[in-house]
Amino acid sequence: MAVSMNRRKPKSSKNSETKEHCCCSAFLFKILSRIPLGILLLILVYLWSSSSTIISGKIVHICVSSRKLNNLYCLSAGTQPNFEIPIPLTNNSFTRNIENIDASPSTNSSVTDDKEIVNALSSSSIGNIKEDVDIFRKDSIRTEIDGADKNRNEEIAIAKKAVKEQLQLHRSWMSSTNHASCEGRGVYVYDLPSKFNKDLMGQCEDMMPWTNFCEYFNNDALGEPLASLGKGWYHTHQYSLEPIFHSRILSHPCRVYNESEAKLFYVPYYGGLDILRWHFKNVSVDVKDTLAMDLMKWLEHRKPWVQNSGSDHVFVLGKISWDFRRRNYTSWGTRFLELEQMQNPIKLLIERQPWEVNDIAIPHPTFFHPHSDDDIVAWQQKIIGTTRKSLVSFAGAERPNQPQSIRSVLINQCTSTSSDKCQFLDCKSGGCNQPETVTELFMDSEFCLQPPGDSPTRKSVFDSLVSGCIPVLFDPFTAYYQYPWHLPEDHRKYSVFIDQEEVRQMKVDVVGRLSGISARERDEMRRFIVYELLPGLVYGDSSSRFEKFQDAFSISVNTLLQRVSRMQ
Ligand SMILES: *[C@@H]1O[C@H](CO)[C@@H](O)[C@H](O)[C@H]1NC(C)=O
Ligand SMILES: *[C@@H]1O[C@H](CO)[C@@H](O)[C@H](O)[C@H]1NC(C)=O
Ligand SMILES: *[C@@H]1O[C@H](CO)[C@@H](O)[C@H](O)[C@H]1NC(C)=O
Ligand SMILES: *[C@@H]1O[C@H](CO)[C@@H](O)[C@H](O)[C@H]1NC(C)=O
Ligand SMILES: *[C@@H]1O[C@H](CO)[C@@H](O)[C@H](O)[C@H]1NC(C)=O
Q1: Ligand 5 centroid distance, CA of 301 (Å)
Q2: Per residue, what are the HEC states of 396-407?
Q3: What residues are in contact with ligand 5 under a 6 Å CB criterion?
């Protein structure tokens, strides 16, 4: 929060938000006057990366971006086995190269550890407050962290509160009424040169070394139909959000073709696909940034982009925020979201960076893409009525390279209880290959364990919700601090929370704890998930029409329209 507020350019005028900003600033000021800024930053970085942060003794190892490099083949997916398989190509020269770059915290040099923190902080989005971070020079770092350690609980609470304030701001844009009229709420979709979107899909064969993406882009990027699961089910790739969102917005009822009639501007740049094609190739960082820089040049000449400094513009990115925030001690990802011009627009991503107020997370795409209200109702009836034979299930893989991952503990607990209580589907052995297998497992289970993977969020959380399986979360950053428009603030309505620290220290028997939840409580949660949440968590197909429901897409666009119509 401190971070993002400080780097907002003062010249950007967001009159309508003045109130919120004032209250945020006051809040900020309170924090800043209480603790040194450097420590606050450290806490934010720590909180954010808590799923991959190791605290040993007094040293906090930050491996926020190295986690991706540690395990190239473990992206944030839960149920896509291609992303779960731990590095099959150990003798691949490029992999080795990456591992060398990675100053992994598991190496025992404390110099490396300190450097990591300094780098993470000094290259994080701090702009004009860089001097404060200099306190984190190598020599002083230990004492600074000792200091942080002392009041850590209090400070963590403050930093978490800051994240919650942002979510409150995001939620405040939502409307309780469903607008029937597009009057004064026009959406303009830029007609970008095809190199920024369609041409990237055209590179599907060469996108990643071990997967051919082409079939995922069939059917307006929903993928191949999955007849066995029923109407509206497709083999959708987890990174397909960009084209899915784009084809929906082209037929949005509020779309206008005249810029001067628009309130909201959508830039259909497929930034996630852009960077995906470079992730596993040995190219320079300049190559990775080329298209994003071209886009900035293209936008410079558009009047609407200039007129409000981008604050009424929105980008939809189908990958996690970190992939677009390259720090210069790593070569992973692009700098797209670090660019000055990209600070004002709203970015809708499958995973936000918690201290970036203009990052907003929206659901990962699932396999279900209804066409009509009837498709939704039919699915609701189907899953509310199924008998769930197992109490708990977990679909995923261990993280042997991440000693702090709680996955092994969970897998042990799951497989050591009587077999009908907990089912483990090992993604390492290819068991999660088929969407049917995972969906059927989740439809068969009361609770689905959703520990963080390589990043805090999981597509699998949405797969389990859509299957009517109650997610069990271990890290608030997996969902509670992510999806302000699609999940309610009271997370007890739809999930069970067990602190990962308790699991790590083996203080909790997860299956036992879940057995203690009564059938009545389970049913209540499930009814809330299926009837209240589910329609708003799925993306309809490209020609879908809903009367009764708002899907994930409509909720997102309506909320954005609500926000911009209050601006100015
Ligand atoms: C990589 O390992 C595989 C199997 O271990 C082996 O067949 C192949 O020759 C190795 N490639 C290189 C370049 O070392
Ligand atoms: C990557 O590219 C650079 C520059 O072209 C080259 O020097 C280096 O050897 C390459 N690394 C690998 C692992 O191919
Ligand atoms: C780590 O420390 C051990 C002994 O303490 C040493 O043998 C090893 O080389 C060190 N590794 C690195 C990467 O420095
Ligand atoms: C766009 O709208 C503006 C204002 O309503 C109008 O003056 C202008 O002629 C329109 N442009 C086109 C191409 O229709
Ligand atoms: C990181 O980037 C900044 C600005 O781009 C530059 O000033 C700094 O020297 C770079 N640091 C390293 C270690 O390359």
Answers
A1: 29
A2: ECCCCCCCCCCH
A3: 123, 328
Residues 6+ apart with CB under 8 A from 437: 425, 431
Which of ligand 5's atoms lies nearest the C-alpha of 119? 13
Q: Read off the pLDDT of each residue in 372-399 and give the average, rounded to a whole number.
A: 95
Q: How far away, in angstroms, is 118 Cα from ligand 5 center?
A: 12
**Vertex 288 angle, CA 286 and 293, to 5°:** 75
Distance CA 387, CA 22 (A): 51
Ligand nearest to the CA of 87: 1
Which ligand gives the minimal distance to the CA of 99? 2
Specify the pLDDT at position 68. Answer: 30
- Asked whether 436 and 229 are in contact (CB, 8 A), the reply is yes
Nearest CA to ligand 4 atom 1: 258
DSSP secondary structure, 329-395, as one string: T---S--GGGSGGGSSSEEEEEE--TT-TTEEE-PPP-SB--SBHHHHHHHHHHHHH----EEEEEE
| Residue type at position 563 | R
Probe target for ligand 4 pocket from 188, 191, 258, with the most ligand atoms within 8 Å of CB: 258
Question: Does residue 351 contact residue 521 with C-beta atoms inside 8 Å?
Answer: no
Residue spans per domain, the chain: 92-172, 189-249+264-366, 373-537
Residue pair 435/367 in contact (Cβ under 8 Å)? The answer is: yes
- Residues 352 and 320: their CA atoms lie apart, in Å, by 7
Q: Is the pLDDT of residue 379 over 70?
A: yes
Query: Phi, psi at residue 101, to the nearest 5°?
Result: -60, -40
- Ligand 3, atom 2, lies closest to the CA of 108
Nearest ligand to the C-alpha of residue 303?
4
The atom of ligand 2 lying closest to the CA of 96 is 13
* pLDDT digit string, tens, across residues 548-563: 999 999 999 999 999 9
Residue owning the nearest CA to atom 11 of ligand 5 = 328
Average pLDDT over residues 439-455: 95
Give the chain's radius of gyration (CA, Å).
23
Q: Which of 282, 285, 287, 331 to mutate to test the pocket of ligand 2 (most atoms within 8 A of CB)?
A: 282
pLDDT band at 162 (very low <50, low <70, confident <90, very high): confident
Domain 373-537 fold? Rossmann fold (3.40.50)
Say yes or no: CB of residue 177 within 6 Å of ligand 3. Answer: no
Could you report the per-residue pLDDT of 37-89, keeping only the tens digit for each? Answer: 555 555 555 555 443 332 222 222 222 322 332 222 222 222 222 222 122 22
d(CA 158, CA 161): 5
For residue 104, give the ligand nearest its CA.
3
Q: Please tell me if the CB atom of residue 93 comes closer than 6 angstroms to any atom of ligand 4.
A: no
pTM over 0.85: no
Q: Are 243 and 197 in contact (CB under 8 A)?
A: yes
